Amino acid sequence: MSNRLINWFKFASPQSFYPLAGRMIPWFWALTAVFGAIGLWISFFVAPTDAVQGEGYRIIFIHVPASWMSMFIYLVMAAWAGLGLALNTRLSGMMAQALAPTGALMAFISLWTGAFWGKPMWGTWWVWDARLTSELILFFLYIGFIALQAAIDDPRRADKAGAVMALVGVVNVPIIYFSVKWWNTLHQGASVSMTKSPSMAQTMLWGMLVMALCFWMYSIAVALMRVRAIILERETHTEWVRELPEVKE
Prior knowledge:
The chain has one domain. The protein has ten helices and no strands. Helix 2 runs antiparallel to helix 8, helix 3 packs antiparallel against helix 4 and helix 5 runs antiparallel to helix 6.
């Protein structure tokens, strides 16, 4: 058991993680394509028309997975940042930095698709609803994290400053999730719950879950590509980076 742990811990160094990430990226891109094709087919050609919202409801197959991922990525980013702050590990800060732009993208997609859904359903593009407002705050937290790291020249200091901000912002994630329960909001409640049966047709549920897997695989693939670029940028002074074939070329 201890030997296995030692083997896994070796990937905590940028030098060991770089080639591992390179091997994993094609698999996650392939899974993104497979889940995306299946999810879009179910969502737009198999799932029935909603009796109340009509065809316009289909935007949830993009909106809901993006919303889930925006919250999940922030938790993972904060976990990596906190790990780097506690253990002073270089790769942890790099992973947090790599995840932030994808998380911001997911929050942006969530907000825009929510606006497109809200216009026909609520009659307006935007309301200062508790969930919408807290999701907007999440987007600003991502942007603030990215801007703060970019403003500090020393990467290790930037990681520490970003980690503090990321950990403070974690409190916003449960606010987003529970906002529809804590306050009287226009936003509908959760369609999928761990304690209740789903309030939608099975084909709708499967379409949403498969699209969520597509977004998940995409986020991992992009984060791995980005962290490899960050490793090359930060470790450019090391011998092992200078010996890489892609760097020599």
